Amino acid sequence: MAAKKTRRKKSGATEFLDGQLLVAMPSMPDERFARSVIYICAHSDEGAMGIVINQKSKSVTFPELLVQLKVIEEKAAIRLPPEVEDVQVLRGGPMEAGRGFVLHTDDFQSGDSTVTIHKGVCLTATLDILRAIAEGVGPHQAALALGYASWGPGQLEDELLHNGWLTGPADPALIFDAAHDDKYTRALRSMGVDPAYLSGEAGHA
Predict the structure, then answer these.
(1) List of domains in the chain
(2) pLDDT value for 18
(3) How far apart (Å, rounded) are the C-alpha atoms in residues 1 and 4?
(4) What does DSSP say about strands 165-169 and 20-24: parallel, antiparallel, or unpaired?
(5) Which residue among 57, 136, 177, 178 has the highest number of C-beta atoms inside a 10 angstrom radius?
(6) Is residue 32 helix, strand or coil?
(7) Using an 8 Å Cβ cutoff, are 22 and 166 in contact?
(8) Would you state the pLDDT for residue 6?
């Protein structure tokens, strides 16, 4: 089945997918991305970068990460605002798994360090946003990803051509919620795809 998609930028014959979702097809040959849902943060003629949003980190929680990064002292962890516990720590992808990226709503900006991606979703990769969240003055919704997924020039386009992914619009609610177990199914349904009938057909209209 083909998912309908909207694309925002073009360069010559190339259509870019910033702010879109990638959902792995059953035919996905790379086991690291089996049943993965990826939010595309950047896409150009030079390649693409995205964050896996349906794989929760099993090794660390957000408060623990704040302590590890020395954003707060260990004894301060019990005094964190309640909403800090709700910040998801994701396995964002296989590249640079020790590096953190925060996807968040656009009610927080950290100068040039914050990049607006699409429809109120931003990306910040500095400690400023972690401090703001710890102090209760951060964005309304946020998810911290450890690592990311990346593609070289033309690589993502080739994977789409060979039925590796479905693409479609991203719902911010899907990005930030904590129900990871059924996020893959919900992402497909948001594209008008019934998972029961999903096959290895092409992922582009």
Answers:
(1) 9-54+150-197 (3.40.1740.10), 62-148 (3.40.1740.10)
(2) 93
(3) 10
(4) antiparallel
(5) 57
(6) helix
(7) yes
(8) 36
